[in-house]
Amino acid sequence: VLVGGYAGGWLSAEQVDSTPLTAAGLRAAGSTLGVGLVAVLPPERCPVAETARLVRWLAGESAGQCGPCWNGLPALADAMEELASTGGHHLRERLDRWAGMVTRRGACHHPDGVALLVRSLLMTFGEHVDEHRQFGWCGAEPPGCWLPVPAAEEPGLGAWR
Ligand code: SF4
Question: Mean pLDDT throughout 76-89?
């Protein structure tokens, strides 16, 4: 379950059962109340692909005035798309490290939200992330988009859609 919107955090079914719907409870579980949006991922959808799409969109939703948004978020988006499409054993460590590097480094909390989303994916869907690292695209059906983003065209995603 994605809790807190597109800059929120993924929770497993077990965490949903045990986590109080409070700011403190969600923070302790690695998520946030955020904008108050809750989305339940259908079983046929790929959380890595959905997160990659959201990170790419979020990376484009800044003025690029601070280092984390100029350098960090596009790099996170590239790495997420690589994880979703072709995989790579280095990607878990890279994503975790880069998410840490952008956190609390901007003039606002936009990069923090993207980092939270990425790190919650690594934590909540660890096994599926490892499958992507090893094999690349998981073949989830139906391919394409589930969580909508405003932009009709999303550069860089065509290779694995
Ligand atoms: S950190 Fe915030 S203020 Fe700085 S470029 Fe990113 S979105 Fe803009």
Answer: 96
Decide: 159 in ligand 1 pocket, CB within 6 A: no
For residue 15, the one-letter residue type is Q
Residue among 61, 102, 55 nearest 82 (CA): 55
CA of 141 from ligand 1 middle (Å) equals 35
The strand pair at 38-39 and 9-10 is best described as unpaired
Average pLDDT over residues 24-40: 94
DSSP-derived secondary structure letter, 100: H
- Residue 115 CB coordination number (10 Å): 27
For tokens 């955020």, name the residue.
34
Ligand 1 centre to CA of 69 (Å) is 6
- What's the Cα-to-Cα distance from 128 to each of 43, 58, 77, 111, 141, rounded to whole Å? 12, 22, 18, 24, 15
The answer to whether residues 128 and 47 touch, using CB atoms and an 8 Å cutoff, is: yes
